[in-house]
Amino acid sequence: QKCLSLIKKTKFLNAYITVSEEVALKQAEESEKRYKNGQPLGDLDGIPIAVKDNFSTSGIETTCASNMLKGYVPPYNATVVQKLLDQGALLMGKTNLDEFAMGSGSTDGVFGPVKNPWSYSKQYREKRKQNPHSKSGDSDWLITGGSSGGSAAAVSAFTCYAALGSDTGGSTRNPAAHCGLVGFKPSYGLVSRHGLIPLVNSMDVPGILTRCVDDAAMVLGVLAGHDPKDSTTVHDPINKPLVLSSLADVSKLCIGIPKEYLVPELSSEIQSLWSRAADLFESEGAKVIEVSLPHTSYSIVCYHVLCTSEVASNMARFDGLQYGHRCDIDVSTEAMYAATRREGFNDVVRGRILSGNFFLLKENYENYFVKAQKVRRLIADDFVNAFNSGVDVLLTPTTLSEAVPYLEFIKEDNRTRSAQDDIFTQPVNMAGLPAVSIPVALSNQGLPIGLQFIGRAFYDQQLLTVAKWFE
Ligand code: GLN
C-alpha cells in the first residue's frame, strides 16, 4: 500500500507506463495468507518489484514505449517475470523507457521523458539556485539516463525495492549511476531473454536495479538458470537463494584499471573518485594494476553497425499484421506496411532500421557487418587477455558525467555525446561479461556518481561479492 501511494505521489516523474495495482494487491493478499498459514515462502514473497515495459507480461499491456505496441497485451509472461511471480514478488507495474530501449536518456519514448528524482533533492535545488545559468521553472529537471530510466526512477523514489531493466549497451548501469542505485548486468546467457522484446539479440540481457548489492544478488538468484525457451542460456552454477558472503580476503584480489577508459571527456570529479576507489583497494592490500584494452575506442562505431543491423532484422516483425498498431490504408499490403511503420516507430527507430538495412545490403555486408563482427571479437579478446593476465575484476567509471538537465540533453549536438556516454558500458555487452554499477558518492552538485566493476564471464557471484565489499 505504501509503495502504491508513493507511485501516485510521484506520478510526475513519469516512471510508470502502467500501474498494475489490482494485480499487486491480490498478490500481496496471497503472500500474507501464505505467511499467516505458515506455508513456505518464496525468496521474494511480498516484495514490490517493477518491470521495464519491454518484458512481456501476461494480461498486462506491454508497449516498449512505442505507438507500434500501444494496446498490445501479451498472452504470456517473459521467463524472468514468471520467475519473479513464482517466488512471490508483487508486480507493481511496467516502467517507462526510450522507445524499444533505444537511447541513453529515457527521453525518447512515446509516453514522454522520465524525470530523475534527484532533480528535487534539497542539496541539488540549492546548488541550482546559486547557478546563474540554470533555467527555472517546470522544465528544470535532470534526466535519469536510460534506457531503463523508468525502472531506475521507480526504485529511486521508493515505489518498489527492485526493478527489471534491460541492458544492451548500458541501459541498466547508466540510469543506475544517474539515480544513485546498483545496476547489475549479468553475464550473457545466465538469465533468459525469452519474452524480452529484442533490441540486439546477441547483446541483450535482463538487468537488475536495486538499492544495494545484496538485493541485486537475491534477485539474480531467482532469475538465473537455463531456460528451454532461450537456447543461449546455460546451466548456471549459482546457489539458490543467492546470499553473498563477505569477501574473505581483499589482499588476494587483483584489480585492473583499463588505461583507455581515461578519456578527456571524463568529468574530473569522476576521475578523482575512480582513482580514490583504486587507492582504497590498494590500501587494503589488493594488487591494483593498469591494463590495456586497446580496441576500446572502436566500440561505439562497431556497436552502431551491429546494433542497427540486428534492429533492421528484429523490427521486421512489426508489420501491422501480427502485433499492435495497424494503419487503415488498404490500397496494397506494401502501402499498409509502410504507413503502419511510419506511424508506429519514432525517428530513432526508423533511423536505425534504415542504417541497419544499409549495412546489410549485399554490397556493404562484408565491409560493414562482417568487419564489425571481427572488431567485436577483438574487443572481447581484450577483456580475455586482461583476465588471463591475472586480473580478477576491472574497475572503471560508469558514465562520463553525473545526470544532466533535460534541456541540455536534448540539444542536437548532445545526441552524439549521449552515444559517447556509453563508452564505458558498451564493450561489456560485446563481450557478454557481467558488470555492475554501484553508487559511490555525491558530486559537488549533490548528484550521485557510480563506478563500474566488470568480471569474467559467469563469475557474476565473485563480481557481486567484490562490489558488496566496496559498497
Ligand atoms: N544507448 C544504447 C542504444 O541506444 C544502449 C541501449 C540499451 O542498452 N538498451 O542502443
General description of the model:
The protein is an alpha/beta fold and 471 residues long. The chain has a domain at 2-247 and 398-470: Alpha-Beta Complex (Amidase signature (AS) enzymes), CATH 3.90.1300. It contains 16 helices and 11 strands. The protein has helices at residues 2-9, 21-36, 79-86, 122-130, 149-156, 173-178, 213-223, 268-283, 299-314, 333-344, 347-360, 366-388, 406-409, 412-420, 426-431, 460-470; strands spanning 16-19, 48-52, 90-95, 162-167, 182-185, 205-210, 254-258, 287-291, 393-397, 435-442, 448-454. The chain has an 11-stranded mixed beta sheet with strand order 1-3-2-4-6-5-10-11-9-7-8, with helices on both faces. Helix 7 packs antiparallel against helix 16, helix 9 crosses helix 11 and helix 9 packs across helix 12. It starts with a helix and ends with a helix. The mean pLDDT is 95. The structure holds glutamine. Residues 101-104, 147, 166-171, 199, 307, 422 line the site of glutamine (GLN).
Structural class, judged by helices and strands?
alpha/beta
Number of helices: 16
Name given to the CATH architecture of the domain at 2-247 and 398-470: Alpha-Beta Complex
CATH superfamily annotation of the domain at 2-247 and 398-470:
Amidase signature (AS) domain
Q: Detail the poorly predicted runs.
A: none
Radius of gyration: 21 Å
Mean pLDDT rating:
95
Strand count: 11
Largest sheet: 11 strands, mixed
Query: N- to C-terminal separation?
Result: 30 Å
CATH structural class of the domain at 2-247 and 398-470: Alpha Beta
Helix share, percent: 25-40%
Globally, the shape reads globular
